[in-house]
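Narrative summary of target 7.
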Amino acid sequence: MTRQNLARQPVILTPQLAAVSKTITDSFYQELDSEFDGFAGHVLISSHAFDKPWGVWEMHPAGDEVVVLLSGDIDFILRTDDGDRTLRVTEPGDYIVVPKGLWHTARPRAPTTMLFITPGEGTENRDEPG
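Modeled conformation, tokenized:
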């Protein structure tokens, strides 16, 4: 048992709920797929800091994603059937549940740090969702 940091060593929860930490590398996400059986049934717990809009939209087909504000001020944009919905998150501890299969992106209004609990299997990233 050692102290870790989510920004440098995210935690992977296996289908058996074992917690495995893994150091971030340039090929981190590709390694997750190869080392954890396509990430089937796994959940990634990570922390990321932003000061610029995300460069892509993402979508998680395997389940809902929970995103918790740790610090900052951010607009989360969700692409719904009725158009884009913007949720501003400003209070540490506030969170958003991004429904399974919903495209989303984010635009920080100030330097922002968030905690992500992500069912990663099949995650897609695009410049603009179709």
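The mean pLDDT is 95.
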